[in-house]
Amino acid sequence: MQNFDDLSAEFAFATQAIRAGHRRTAENEHNEPIFTTSSFVFSSAAEAAARFAEETGEHNIYSRFTNPTVRTFEQRLACLEGGEAAVATASGMAAILATCLAFLSQGDEVICSRSVFGSTASLFSKFVSKWGIQTHFVDLQDLSAWQAAMTPRTRLLFVETPSNPLCELANLQALSQLARAHACKLVVDNCFCTPALQRPLSLGADIVVHSATKYLDGQGRALGGAVVGNAQDMAQVFNVVRTCGPCMSPFNAWVFLKGLETLELRMRAHSANALALATWLSEQPKVEKVHYAGLASHPQHALAKAQMHGGFGGVLSFVVRGGREAAWSVIDQTQMLSITGNLGDVKTTITHPATTTHGKLTPEQRAQVGIEDGLIRIAVGLEALADIQADLAVSL
């Protein structure tokens, strides 16, 4: 087999992550090339006209919406998620914005989990609202609240599962049934799990969004996002990206392709480290509680086992006694851990959600979603577990 742009689903996940989407050029290269060009030339004016008349993005015209390196990343990610197509974007937030632009119109309504990334909540409440679109925020776990918020104008249900930073889970099969019953779409942010651990489309979701910046890259090198779903829906998202321009650069797409090659191995290793660290943290006297779906004590552990396979992800959070002062003290005394709001890196990162990732929320909004002043989030990396524990043990 020389080309892998239509890699059969019969291949294992690890094989798809390395091979899918690569269509070799006339040079017969072994590694995927980076097409660092803004545009592509045509053999005639007639060919140019024919290419510009197409709406599929299957032929190269202009790199804002057609680039071979970006296309390879899109096809590989779609294969891994079990979707028909994917559209790459400039960031994870751009992926969510493109989804909103593709499927929402003035007068429509969205139901969104309260337990989402701070910028996601701000996008819906401060910007999407400017288009005359109303968002209802509800408890992620309370299916009756989702049902009560439904109206004839509901078009999208949006969830992040596991949630950032409390690792709450949505019952995706139950929400997908609710979405189908009301003829709307279920959109799932799969950033924390990636398709290596969770495939929302197989559980009934209509659309999956990613911040490729996180685990899909895995080393904190580049910004990017993606939307995955069926071909018809992705054609609408593609038209948004083509027209509005929140596109992924070819170089970043190539970086993400390299990340996907080791995705399954990394996610299993992140999960193993995170479970061990969560268990250790739960035994520390200064720690009030630990949020991690892999712990048997987590109230949704059974659901996590049903929806996630191969591990429970690399992100956990915990509450220390003493509020913000105590949390900042723990963070400031670490020597190896990186104090940063990013996650999904091979390097372990630590942050204080109430004043960083969710700092734009009001105190009331943070209280609603359980983000306490003493809460610390750790995205567990791939360093030796003993070294991560030793760095935290100084202050705990």
TrEMBL record:
Q: Which PROSITE patterns match?
A: CYS_MET_METAB_PP (PS00868)
Q: Which residues carry this modification: N6-(pyridoxal phosphate)lysine?
A: K214
Write down the EC number.
2.5.1.-
- UniProt-listed InterPro entries: Cys/Met-Metab_PyrdxlP-dep_enz, Cys_met_metab_PP, O-succ-hSer_sulfhydrylase, PyrdxlP-dep_Trfase, PyrdxlP-dep_Trfase_major, PyrdxlP-dep_Trfase_small
The GO terms describing molecular function are: carbon-sulfur lyase activity; pyridoxal phosphate binding; transferase activity, transferring alkyl or aryl (other than methyl) groups
Name the cofactor(s).
pyridoxal 5'-phosphate
Q: Which Pfam families match?
A: Cys_Met_Meta_PP (PF01053)
Presence of keyword Membrane: no
Keyword hit for Calcium:
no
Q: What keyword terms does UniProt attach to this protein?
A: Amino-acid biosynthesis, Methionine biosynthesis, Pyridoxal phosphate, Transferase
Identify the pathway.
Amino-acid biosynthesis; L-methionine biosynthesis via de novo pathway; L-homocysteine from O-succinyl-L-homoserine: step 1/1
Q: Please give the SUPFAM superfamilies that the UniProt record associates with this protein.
A: PLP-dependent transferases
One example of a Gene Ontology biological process annotation:
'de novo' L-methionine biosynthetic process
Q: Which residues cross the membrane?
A: none
Instruction: Show the catalytic activity.
Output: O-succinyl-L-homoserine + hydrogen sulfide = L-homocysteine + succinate
An annotated GO cellular component of this protein is: cytoplasm
Cite the HAMAP family for this sequence. MetZ (MF_02056)
Protein family (similarity comment): Belongs to the trans-sulfuration enzymes family. MetZ subfamily.
Its biological purpose is as follows:
Catalyzes the formation of L-homocysteine from O-succinyl-L-homoserine (OSHS) and hydrogen sulfide.
Oligomer and partners: Homotetramer.
Protein name as annotated: O-succinylhomoserine sulfhydrylase
